[in-house]
């Protein structure tokens, strides 16, 4: 039976022989035993004082309590009760930290910005809260299985801590917030192991003291508690393994070399990647414009920059610069909130620190056109040409600022530390570092997701206001080229109307082309690349007539 203890089937009842022995004992002996019992009841409370024994619950004839008596509890020990109080306190601290980290994803509190995504420290804190919840809920049901599984979790968390501290790039991205989160997670895992062990010791001690021997069986309720706790900690082990694998991939990706430099901006809060290819040239004593690339929904290095490199090889242009917006490729994430105008300011600061000078011909695609238009309006004398490739219009920013899209991005960000798709791609499909950092799988990274989430949060508010103001400021004589996707225009009438409206940003339209069979990324078709290169050559020629910079002797 579940309620019986092995070897205790007749506990609580004296045998006739024991009763007779008790009756035959001298009266003086019975008096001594009674006095000892009274002295025991009158002693000062100690750690071993039974909290639930109010004196009205008589012991068995042998002086012991029934094993199922509620007074038989590890909570009788002050040490056990203090461990529980501290566990609850740690849980409250972790919940407060979890709340701050959740807020920092959307609005960075002062001093809490990290250059990484912020999803890893959030994940470590979630794991910490999970461990504490299991410890609190199943506090009075210690089990060796629970200690073993928690020890495995602690081991993987120690590996995570070592990776974060040992790899400079990861340490820089996670910052003090990420380091504090993983150290706290390791401490709590070890705390849970020690707590469970102490409770097991206290339970055994109290059973020996109050029932005469330690318990050798569990009730059905206790078995269920141990089973549920073990299943939960096994799930936590899987989470810890996946997080360790993702951190290992990040460590591997951090060794990928890049062109150009990472430049600190915005008061040295974060760094952006900037690279320039080619040589400065002059025509008729005037400096030829440098092409400044602004990618769309993907990093510049993902085939958009390759098109510009081919243009240099073909002699169409002599020099170009490209950068990664915050969160893309080698650039850090910026503090939240972060608008398109803030990206334009970060680009301006990076160019100034790198010693790069105009004039500039801005070539941008998709959502990147918003940043380029704002940059152009803030550097009217330096920007001598605009080339927009299937650009995003300010009236359509509500599409990327949709709350539903934001919620989905947040959800993907929360689970991004598990790296399920990234790990599967690396193990089973041979995905390379290039694929993950700036290639077709870059969208799976936490930094990239955070950047898209930041764009989503302010697209239809701050960014829209900034680009609308830029349109009113934009110089009317700046040469303009618009190249649109025929597929996009034919499938979306509103998109086509807004493409037409984009040709009216200035009064100096060099040309508008709708490339047949071209997707949103027009340069991915041969015809698209040809049209873009042809129009770029015309734009550079037209830009030489606008605000050229004379050579200083």
From TrEMBL:
Annotated transmembrane regions: 85-107, 119-141, 148-170, 176-194, 223-249
UniProt feature, compositional bias: Polar residues: 28-37
Protein name: Mitochondrial integral membrane protein-like protein
Gene3D superfamilies assigned to the protein according to its UniProt record, in alphabetical order: alpha/beta hydrolase (3.40.50.1820)
Species: Didymosphaeria variabile
UniProt KW keywords: Membrane, Transmembrane, Transmembrane helix
Region annotated Disordered, chain positions: 1-67
Compositional bias ranges of the Basic and acidic residues kind: 1-20, 38-59
């Amino acid at each position: 039976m579940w309620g019986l203890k092995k070897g205790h089937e007749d506990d609580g009842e004296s045998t006739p022989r024991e009763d007779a022995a008790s009756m035959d004992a001298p009266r003086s002996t019975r008096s001594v035993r009674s006095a000892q019992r009274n002295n025991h009841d009158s002693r000062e409370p100690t750690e071993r004082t039974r909290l639930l024994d109010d004196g009205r619950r008589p012991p068995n004839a042998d002086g012991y309590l029934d094993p199922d008596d509620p007074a038989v509890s590890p909570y009788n020990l002050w040490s056990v009760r203090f461990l529980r109080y501290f566990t609850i306190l740690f849980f409250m601290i972790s919940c407060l930290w979890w709340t701050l980290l959740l807020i920092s994803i959307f609005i960075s509190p002062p001093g809490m910005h990290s250059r990484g995504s912020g999803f890893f420290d959030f994940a470590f804190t979630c794991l910490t809260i999970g461990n504490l919840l299991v410890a609190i809920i199943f506090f009075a049901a210690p089990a060796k299985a629970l200690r073993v599984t928690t020890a495995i979790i602690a081991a993987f968390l120690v590996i995570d801590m070592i990776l974060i501290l040992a790899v400079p790039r990861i340490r820089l991205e996670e910052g003090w917030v990420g380091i504090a989160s993983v150290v706290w997670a390791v401490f709590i895992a070890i705390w849970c192991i020690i707590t469970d062990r102490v409770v097991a010791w206290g339970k055994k001690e109290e059973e020996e003291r109050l029932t005469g021997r330690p318990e050798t069986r569990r009730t059905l309720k206790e078995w269920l508690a141990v089973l549920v706790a073990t299943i939960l900690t096994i799930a936590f082990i899987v989470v810890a393994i996946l997080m360790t694998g993702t951190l290992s991939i990040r460590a591997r990706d951090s060794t990928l070399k890049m062109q150009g430099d990472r430049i600190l901006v915005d008061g040295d809060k974060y760094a952006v990647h900037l690279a320039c290819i080619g040589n400065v040239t002059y025509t008729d004593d005037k400096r030829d414009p440098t092409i400044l690339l602004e990618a769309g929904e993907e990093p510049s290095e993902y085939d958009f920059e390759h098109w510009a490199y081919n243009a240099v090889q073909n002699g169409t242009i002599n020099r170009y610069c490209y950068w990664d917006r915050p969160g893309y490729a080698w650039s850090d994430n910026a503090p939240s909130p972060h608008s398109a105008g803030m990206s334009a300011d970060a680009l301006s600061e990076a160019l100034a620190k790198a010693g790069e000078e105009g004039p500039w011909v801005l070539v941008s695609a998709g959502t990147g056109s918003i940043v380029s238009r704002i940059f152009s309006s803030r550097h009217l004398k330096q920007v001598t040409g605009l080339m927009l490739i299937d650009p995003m219009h300010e009236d359509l920013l509500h599409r990327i600022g949709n709350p539903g899209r934001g919620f989905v991005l947040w959800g993907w960000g929360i689970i991004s530390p598990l790296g399920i798709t990234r790990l599967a791609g690396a193990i089973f499909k041979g995905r390379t570092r290039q694929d993950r950092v700036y290639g077709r799988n870059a969208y799976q990274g936490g930094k990239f997701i955070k950047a898209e989430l930041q764009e989503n949060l302010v697209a239809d508010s701050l960014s829209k206001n900034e680009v609308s103001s830029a349109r009113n400021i934009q110089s009317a004589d700046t040469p303009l080229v618009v190249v649109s996707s025929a597929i996009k225009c034919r499938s979306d009438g509103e998109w086509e109307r807004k493409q037409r409206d984009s040709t009216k940003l200035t009064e100096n339209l060099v040309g508008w082309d709708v490339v047949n069979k071209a997707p949103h990324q027009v340069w991915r078709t041969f015809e698209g690349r040809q049209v873009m290169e042809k129009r770029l050559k015309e734009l550079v020629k037209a830009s030489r007539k606008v605000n050229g910079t004379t050579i200083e002797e």
